[in-house]
Amino acid sequence: MQTRDTVEVLTGEHPDGSVIWLHGLGADGHDFEAIVPELRLPASVELRFVFPHAPVRPVTINGGMAMRAWYDILSFDSESRADENGIRESSAILEGLIAREVERGIQPRKIIIAGFSQGGAVAIHTALQTQHDIGGLMALSTYMAMPDDAENATSRRDLPIFMAHGSFDPVLRMEWGRASADKLIETGYSVDWHEYPMAHAVCPQEIADISQWLSAIYS
């Protein structure tokens, strides 16, 4: 199924859970669509995967070129990289998608928010601040772009969190992701951390680990 703002993939006729998965810079909602069958989820796990399209906006580090982006990227360093207003705007989009899944009959604890790269940064921010009692956070090849998110978090500390990063990532250094995971752990969260010998991408072992994590949550 595809709407104006999302691509949707069902793993069963009667989904009782939803995964809202945000793509990275310059991609769109189709980017992770093909991963769903690769997850090889058990037949008993019936989910709706929702892949939204980011708005089109100018991106500073790409010479102001307009492309799909959840927020503007202002520089190449970790501290002043992210456009915080853009993160908040995209977080509001994600909140709306969570609310839509609740309206469609999905319990909040059956909703996982996920994201790759800058989509993951938005997912982290939203997961820590949302008033919805969501079921989990999956953050791939990303980091905590809003530095005060962990200290100001309002979500439950037993929120399941899966974080993964490539050890050869030239775009978002793995040290940034690891530091974000450590900060979450320091503030009382448990993080299921994974490292893979890859660049800024997703690899087969990661897909298998995601499948296992999702299956455990929805079992």
Would you write up a description of this structure?
The protein has one domain (6-217): Alpha/Beta hydrolase fold, catalytic domain (Rossmann fold), CATH 3.40.50. Helix content is 29%, strand content 22%. The chain has five helices and nine strands. The protein has a seven-stranded mixed β-sheet with strand order 1-3-2-6-7-8-9, with helices on both faces. The protein has a two-stranded antiparallel ribbon with strand order 4-5.
Quick synopsis:
By secondary structure, the chain is an alpha/beta fold. 29% of the residues lie in helices and 22% in strands.
Labels describing this entry:
7-stranded mixed beta sheet; globular; Rossmann fold; alpha/beta; two-stranded antiparallel sheet; single chain
